[in-house]
Specification:
The protein is mostly helical. The chain contains four helices and no strands. The radius of gyration is 34 Å and the shape is rod-shaped.
């Protein structure tokens, strides 16, 4: 259904958040169709009025009137076809442009959502920059700085816990007792945190 562009990406890939993007695309497309239809109807109405005035004025010259009226009707039909084709082309181009433009907003929001889901699950991996041309660059920069700060705090806390485990082991806490069991749990927790922070 959708063709691939020169980079091999399908146009459907631009619909990251279909609910958000299509809401705006449908609204603007419908509004554009109404505006184009209204303007087209008004133009056609004026052309029809002009044709009728000329027809009335040529009523006294029957031989000439038929040829002029046929010509005017043909021009009116061409005008209608041109307006319909232009309106459809405008709506299609505007819809595609809106998909691309909303993609530049939906993409960064989708990316932030993925990072927030990972944070919720305890993973704080690297935040990669947005693509050139994406919107919300300032917001994303602040989010990235916040993510980096949270990750740095977690790394620092994890390093402190690791140092505590090493000190406890050096102090000779037995692995078999209750304290040893808790120490082993803390060691496993530190290993899991290290993996989540890598």
């Amino acid at each position: 259904m959708f063709k691939k562009n020169k980079h091999g990406r399908k146009i459907s890939n631009y619909l990251i958040d279909k609910k958000l993007q299509l809401r705006y695309v449908i609204f603007v497309t419908a509004l554009s169709a109404v505006i184009c239809g209204t303007l087209g109807f008004l133009i056609w109405q004026q052309a029809d009025v002009a044709t009728n005035i000329i027809r009335e004025q040529l009523a006294d010259a029957p031989g000439m009137a038929d040829e002029v009226i046929r010509s005017l009707k043909s021009e009116d039909q061409n005008l209608i076809l041109t307006m319909v084709a232009s309106g459809v082309a405008l709506v299609v181009v505007l819809s595609l442009l809106l998909v691309v433009m909303t993609h530049k907003v939906a993409g960064p929001l989708f990316k932030v959502t993925l990072y927030l889901d990972k944070m919720r699950d305890g993973r704080l991996d690297t935040v990669w920059p947005l693509r050139k041309g994406d919107m919300l660059q300032s917001f994303y920069t602040k989010f990235s700085a916040m993510h980096t700060s949270v990750k740095a705090r977690h790394v620092e806390t994890n390093e402190t816990l690791k140092a505590f485990v090493e000190l406890a082991e050096a102090a000779g806490i037995e692995e078999s007792g209750d304290q040893g069991h808790r120490l082993e749990e803390l060691r496993k927790h530190c290993d899991q945190r290290s993996e989540a922070l890598s």
